[in-house]
Write a structure and sequence with these properties.
Elements lengths: L1 E2 L18 E2 L10 E3 L10 E6 L12 E4 L4 E5 L12 E7 L5 E8 L4 E11 L2 E2 L3 E2 H16 L11 E10 L4 E9 L8 E12 L4 E13 L6
Parallel strand pairs: 1-7
Antiparallel strand pairs: 2-3, 3-4, 4-5, 5-6, 7-8, 8-9, 9-10, 9-11, 12-13, 13-14, 14-15
């Protein structure tokens, strides 16, 4: 599993790591069915991101988990469209605040480097809050503009995809900064191609966008109409 490098003020410096993920069997018997994603530990060493060893054989188990370490304990299950860090085609970005009180976990697929999951989780006194789905929050802001364009969907499940994305903490961990591009076809081979750039600042305390700007582009390709 590959950790994608990320360079934000409050994140742990994470580089391209291709070492095997940590087998937790030796840490705790209850952890024997899980791998700890390499480089995902919190600054205080108490928490990390894990995934079931059997996730590739059983897609239903393909979930990234926020866990407490020593002793091992599952704190939260992240909803990442059934795709976990154990997949060879996925890369994981994990960013913690310096005090280990919050973490952003973003999963990207190697096709188009598209985001398949991004969650924000708060931790206090060893307990995790309900994970907040950042990907859904971003998609909700962009969906009305996409529908207005009358463009074809990326596929049957996704109207559009997010690419070239940067999601990380801002303002000493109080907010989340999101910068991303989106499109319905990276190859621009649809009768109507829709693309957009989004820049937003999400307030963690208020659970709302403090600022957000969307710039979209629509290109019609009549020569592709059959």
């Amino acid at each position: 599993m590959k950790i994608i490098p990320k360079a934000f003020l409050l994140c742990i410096p994470i580089f391209n790591l291709f070492a095997a993920d940590v087998d937790l069997s030796g840490w705790d018997k209850s952890a024997s069915s899980y791998f700890l994603a390499t480089g995902s530990e919190s600054p205080d060493g108490k928490y990390g991101v894990a995934y079931p060893k059997a996730s590739e054989q059983n897609p239903k188990l393909a979930k990234n988990l926020i866990v407490a370490l020593k002793p091992f304990r599952i704190l939260a299950v992240l909803e990442d469209d059934g795709m976990a860090a154990g997949s060879k085609r996925l890369g994981l970005t994990v960013e913690w605040t310096r005090d280990s009180s919050k973490v952003i976990v973003t999963t990207k697929h190697d096709k188009w480097d598209m985001i398949v999951g991004s969650s924000l989780v708060g931790i206090r006194d060893g307990q995790a809050a309900q994970p907040f789905n950042l990907l859904n929050a971003i998609n909700r802001e962009m969906a009305p503009d996409f529908r207005k364009s009358k463009a074809e969907a990326y596929n049957e499940m996704l109207p559009f995809i997010l690419i070239e994305s940067k999601i990380g903490f801002a303002d000493q961990g109080k907010n989340v900064r999101v910068k991303t591009a989106a499109c319905n076809d990276p190859n621009e081979a649809r009768t109507i191609d829709w693309s957009a750039d989004f820049d937003g600042l999400w307030s963690i305390a208020e659970s709302k966008w403090l600022t957000h700007q969307l710039t979209s582009h629509v290109k019609k390709n009549p020569q592709l109409v059959q």
